[in-house]
Design brief:
globular; 2 domains; 37% helix; disordered C terminus; Glyco_trans_9; 5-stranded parallel sheet; 6-stranded parallel sheet; Rossmann fold; glycosyltransferase
Length: 336
């Protein structure tokens, strides 16, 4: 029986984008036993990977002791393959027949392509999620019974500079789900990590009873189980955006000083809306003041709504359901 050590990111978004490569490994080596090391935050996303033998949440410790702990956990195994996306010493110091390491690409490319290049995979395998029954039961408890396809929004990010103003998220949601909107009558799920909950509060307050409050109430696996039921996701450049895209949800990602060519939502149902302010100008503002505000102000509501409408129009069966019964979104079956 072969064994594979897969070392991926501490960051949620990067970890999600590495799942395409991991999915390839589970298919190419269906009898292999997998050990996955990643950050504590994305760890729940990997708990149901086929062939998983061990999941090691790599909590950061002072003096890089987390790497020592990982080495001690892994050095006693003879690995058939080590895939190290962290380019760490651990990947070099454990016994292995074959090793591949993350390397800076010769040209800028999307992270999914960059990961696939490590094994020479073309086309690159798309990110995927292994959503388990426990997560779907949690989603059942969090989403009110009878809720049909809904709009999901992610108004926060791990850095304030990447957050589109909350009032614009609220107005966009009201526009898309209000009278004449593409998702007329739909509820709006608002997602944010626990520490970001208060920054999402203005969106929840503006939506009132229309909102489904998922802020601080889900781990990444439960968030995926909730998001796979959504009709559309609109959010900032964040891990939640990548979870939505990997779950197959039509996804609109909003980018100001970020890098959409590298971190845009992957797949045919992913779209990006970038600031009208040139990225170079935004990055210069960040360099001058890391706490600069208003970096996302150059993204117009009308443009986001236009892209969202166009993306929904590419899912005619969903739009037809809302058109047939626009005031009874709760009666619609979940989108699968």
């Amino acid at each position: 029986m072969s064994r594979i050590l897969f070392i991926t990111s501490n960051r949620l978004g990067d970890a999600v984008l590495s799942t395409g490569l991991l999915d390839h490994l589970t298919r190419a080596y269906p009898d292999a036993r997998l050990t996955i090391a990643c950050g504590p935050l994305p760890a729940p996303l990997f708990r149901s990977v086929p062939g998983l033998e061990r999941l090691i949440p790599l909590a950061k410790r002072s003096y890089a002791r987390h790497w020592l702990r990982l080495w001690l956990d892994c050095v006693g195994t003879r690995w058939d393959l080590v895939v190290d996306l962290r380019n760490s010493a651990v990947g070099r110091l454990v016994p292995a027949r074959r090793r591949v390491f993350h390397a800076k690409p010769p040209r800028p490319m999307h992270k999914v392509e960059e990961n696939a290049a490590l094994l020479g995979l073309s086309p690159p395998p798309a990110p995927r999620l292994w959503i388990d029954d426990a997560a779907r039961r949690q989603a059942d408890a969090l989403i009110p019974a009878g809720t049909g396809p809904f709009l999901a929004v992610g108004p926060t990010a791990n850095w304030l500079g990447k957050e589109w103003p909350a009032d614009r998220f609220a107005r966009l949601a009201q526009r898309l789900t209000g009278q004449g909107g593409a998702l007329q009558g739909a509820r709006v799920a608002v997602l944010a990590a626990g520490p970001e909950r208060e920054r999402a509060r203005p969106v929840l307050d503006a939506l009132g009873d229309r909102a489904i409050d998922l802020t601080g109430r889900t781990d990444p696996m439960a968030a995926a189980a909730c998001l796979e039921r959504a009709a559309l996701y609109v959010g900032n450049d964040s891990g939640l955006m990548h979870i939505a895209a990997a779950a197959g949800v039509p996804t609109v990602g909003l980018f100001g000083p970020g890098y959409p060519a590298i971190y845009g939502p992957w797949g045919p149902r992913g779209r990006v809306v970038v600031s009208e302010v040139p990225q170079a100008d935004l990055l210069a503002r960040v360099a001058a003041d890391p706490n600069a505000r208003g970096l996302m102000d150059g993204i117009a509501e009308d443009r986001v709504a236009q892209v969202a409408d166009m993306l929904l129009a590419e899912s005619p069966s969903l739009c037809d359901q809302f058109a047939a019964n626009p005031d009874s979104a709760a009666e619609l079956p979940p989108l699968r």
